[in-house]
Structures are given as C-alpha cells and as structure tokens.
Amino acid sequence: MQLSTRHLLGIKNLTPQDISLILSTAVQFKEVLQRPVKKVPSLRDVTIVNLFYENSTRTRFSFELAEKRLSADIINFSASTSSASKGETLLDTVNNILSMKVDMVVMRHHASGAPHFLAQHIPAAIINAGDGVNEHPTQGLLDAFSIKEKTGKLKGIKVAIIGDIMHSRVAQSNIYLLKKMGALVTVCGPPTLIPKYIHEAMGVEVSYNLKETLDWCDVANVLRIQLERQNQVLFSSLREYSLAYGINRKILDSLHKEIVIMHPGPINRGVEIDSDVADSKQSIILQQVENGVAVRMAVLYLLSKPPNPENPQTP
Question: How far apart are CA 11 and CA 172, in angstroms?
Fold first, then answer.
C-alpha cells in the first residue's frame, strides 16, 4: 500500500488512511527492532540528507538510527558548520546537496513553512522534522502510535495536551492527528499560553484548570515551556507555573483513576513535570523515544515509493 502524498510536510495534509497506513507499517518495523539483527535492506541505494537548521537531539538521532536500520546512505548537515553560516541561501544549499543525487531530505528549520517551500522547488521527497511553531508531524505520529499501543485505540480516547500550546508545533500535529482519528482533545495551560481562537479553529476544548483536566482525560501529554520562542513575559515565574500546572505525584494520587503520562522531550524536571511522575509506571516517555525509530522507519519506507493518487486502504 502507498501514501497519497509524496512528502510529509504536516499531519494537516494527511488523510486518516495515510495515518493508519503509517501506524500499521510502524508496527511491523517495531518487530524488526526486536530482532537480534535490527537492519533491513529496504532503502539500500537511497540517499538521505538530514538538513538541520535548528538544534536537536532526540529527533535527529531517531531519524539517523531509522535511516541506518533501513540501510540508507546518509549525509548529515548542520547549519552552524556549513556555508549557511556564511550567508548561503536555503535553496542554494539544498540544490548543492541535490547535485550529489540525494533522494530524500529530512528537514528541521526555525522558520514555519520552510519544508513546504523546499517541496515546491526541488524534486526530492521532503520530511518535515519540525518547522518553527507550525508542525512536527513525526512526533505527532509517534505519540499516536504510543497511545494506541498503550490503550489499544485512538477513537474515543480522551487526550489532554498540557503546557505551552501557543509555541508548540508538537501540540499542533497532535491535535490534527488525534482529531482525524476520532480522539477527544482538550488543551490546558495558562490563558497566555493558549491561542485565543484555538477552540473555533481546531475544534478542541480549552481548560485553565489542571485538576479538572486530569480528572477528565485518559492520557496527559505534557509539554515544556518554550522560553526560547517567547519574546515577552507570559507568566510570572517558572515556580508559579509549576505550582499551577506542574504534574506531580500529589495531584496524580488525588485522581480516582490512573492516567497515562507522556512528554515529547526535552523534559524540564521540576517545572512541567516532577521526576517521580516522569519515571513512574504511568509514564510512557521512554516508550515514545523507542517508538520514534519505528515510526520514522515507516515514514521513510513509505515515502520512498511513488505516491498513490487514490486514498490508500489500510492493510
């Protein structure tokens, strides 16, 4: 089966059938990762460039490992050590790389829409590894994979996304995906960190009360405060934020049920989540990291094929 799109620019552009196909393919690749020999020749003779204009640890390592597990040839690009630091434009940089016969580009960029720009100008398949405050589609996919693996379903599951919604590309991709797959979504955080029209624009519920939100949800996806993207003071202090919206053992013990705890990383321990929660049996944070490799293997494998103009059906 094939995807209906040539690129992965965002969850917004995927159909529910595309999402189901990626998640079902990821199940097969996760089985591969449990074998003694974790490598398959699926992308042998395919050359992939990892084009990172922004710092990254988990996403970059996860993509590199996924590419190596698929036997692809890899070129790693870092803006700080490239001609981009001398003023070379994005398009010139990529065209120079493409002259080396690159088939796919995995791109992270601080500017929203940068992968979409590239997709309009170059023939290689583009995978968005995070663009500004727009989307982070593979994170949304691996979060959904992790939720389904843990709970057995996506449709009807109640997911709370808690924290800095305003500046989070992870929140955007999660909302698009979960809504497409029939989940119920509530965002929670200080009013200054939640977009004003998110209820009308994205069809999610909005809460400013952490306890009420946790009482409602089955899964809590906790986001960090993205101070590097904030150009003004949006709350009094990290301590005050932690007191009002931090997830700690006390508040979880006050619930009349056990909920699943997630976090896309990096974690600011003691701010949005305490260590005794992040490291508890309710947490699937490390499983998210493990699942990220399988999901990215699925995305790379499926995008290496020509797109199917018809909506694909799940296997």
Answer: 9
User: What residues does 75 pair with on adjacent strands?
Assistant: 49
Report pLDDT digits (tens) over 67-117: 999 999 999 987 765 666 667 788 888 888 778 889 999 999 999 999 999
User: What six digits make up the tokens of 271?
Assistant: 């701010």
- Give 27's DSSP letter: H
C-beta separation of 303 from 125 below 8 A: yes
CA 284/CA 276 separation, integer angstroms: 13
308 within domain boundaries: no
Same domain, 248 and 113: no
Distances (CA, A) of 201 to 13, 159, 258: 16, 18, 31
Sequence-ordered list of residues with C-beta below 8 angstroms from that of 128, at least 6 positions apart, any chain:
7, 8, 9, 10, 107, 115, 135, 136, 137, 138
Tell me how many domains the chain contains: 2
The pTM is what? 0.92
What is the CATH classification number for the domain harbouring 162? 3.40.50.1370
| Model pLDDT for residues 258-286, shown as the tens digit of each residue | 999 999 999 999 999 999 999 999 999 99
The residue whose two tokens read 């946790």 is 214
Range of the domain at 68: 11-135+291-303
CA distance 138 to 257: 30
> How many residues in total does the chain contain?
315
